[in-house]
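Retro notes, item 3 of 5
We never archived the inputs for the iron/sulfur cluster complex last cycle. Fixing that now. Sequence and ligand:
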Amino acid sequence: MHVDRDKCQGHNRCYALAPELFEIDEYGYSFEVNDGLVPDGLEEKARLAVANCPEYAISISEGGDDRASSSGQ
Ligand code: SF4
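Structure as it came back at the time:
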């Protein structure tokens, strides 16, 4: 998960929705904690934050390890 600092306008909506995943800097802009890694169980909150960011500043990339998901199906 990543916050685009150029787009973020500091509404803090993401932080209000998912304080486990975001932190607010001194200017009120948010950034991702934990290097953007979303812990198990918080994926839904991450998606909620993405959906509620008015600036579309938050993005999620799925799966740090693509190899596991590319086989089978
Ligand atoms: S909701 Fe979007 S624009 Fe608002 S603080 Fe979070 S990332 Fe920035």
